[in-house]
Design brief:
alpha/beta, TIM Barrel, 2 domains, 11 helices, binds 3-methyl-2-oxobutanoic acid
Length: 288
């Protein structure tokens, strides 16, 4: 498998076969995330949308990859995740699954499927599972608890998503910190309901750190934070954000670990100069 993982850092996907459900229908991936929480090992995750980055991520020390509906914004340039369709996600899921056969892959049930009612959402969950997702993620939008229960009954592992819910955002100003004031109670309750409905883990997005600490302590299942402070059981970021590949500003919670866009531009400039100055291709890069 991945011989070049960080020494000494266990990887949740390392002793699993990607899509084989375990007892009770939960994948080994779900079980291993639970074990990470129990052992106090921080979970690391990021998004993946395509084959080449998945092939890189297949060798990376991450615990799971998310084929997120953020693909609609990051890759397709839509203003919101609501533009993601099941077909869109299935195409990206297939590319990621082929590129990262050793990783745990979670896929979002898109808003358009949730909007279509419980049957459409459950069908979308089944389709994503059939397309190679080890688990599906459901945002806490209307009807989600029934969808979660139904999928769990069918043996499909479900990750919940509370806090800021991008699928409910219809205007840029609605991207804001969730869970301040009275909303805190609602988020705590929603998280508890998702756990009771059978979710094996939860994404908690853009909430005050003290609320995230409370949610994480209150739940037995792993809580993966994004913009939720340092006390959750793990962190997830959009790959393009962490690699500095997204144009324009980023939310405060994003750390760019490098300037990927500048690097890429430098390589393209070097290629252009080599072509223009007759330094590419050389003899060795040509056929006789
Ligand atoms: O779609 C996505 O990228 C997500 C993350 C923000 C967790 O849901």
């Amino acid at each position: 498998m991945n011989g070049d993982r960080e020494p000494g850092r266990p990887h949740v996907g390392s002793d699993r076969s990607p899509s084989a459900p375990g007892p009770g229908g939960q994948t080994p991936g779900a079980e291993l995330l639970r074990r990470a929480k129990r052992d106090g090992r921080r979970i690391v995750a990021c998004t993946a949308y395509d084959h080449w980055s998945a092939a890189v991520l297949n060798r990376a020390p991450v615990d799971f990859l998310l084929v997120g509906d953020s693909v609609a914004m990051v890759v397709y340039g839509h203003p919101s995740t609501r533009a993601a369709t099941l077909e869109m996600l299935m195409g990206h899921l297939g590319a990621v699954r082929r590129g990262a056969p050793d990783q745990v892959v979670v896929a979002d049930i898109p808003w358009l499927a949730m909007e279509g009612g419980v049957e459409a959402a459950v069908k979308a969950g089944r389709t994503l599972r059939g397309g190679g997702a080890d688990a599906v993620k459901v945002e806490a939008v209307p009807g989600h608890l029934t969808v979660v229960r139904r999928l769990v009954e069918e043996g499909i592992p479900v990750m919940g998503h509370v806090g800021l819910l991008p699928q409910t955002v219809t205007a840029p100003e609605e991207y804001r910190v969730a869970g301040r004031g009275r909303e805190a109670e609602e988020i705590l309750e929603s998280a508890a309901q998702l756990q009771a409905a059978g979710c094996f883990s939860l994404v908690l997005e853009c909430v005050p750190s003290n609320l995230a600490t409370e949610v994480t302590a209150a739940l037995d299942i792993p809580v993966i934070g994004i913009g939720a402070g340092a006390d959750t059981d793990g962190q997830i970021l959009v790959l393009h954000d962490l690699a500095g590949l997204t144009p324009g500003g980023a939310p405060r919670f994003v750390r760019r670990f490098g300037d990927g866009a500048a690097l890429l531009l430098r390589w393209i400039e070097a290629y252009a100069a080599s072509v223009q100055e007759g330094r590419f291709p050389t003899e060795t890069e040509s056929y006789r």
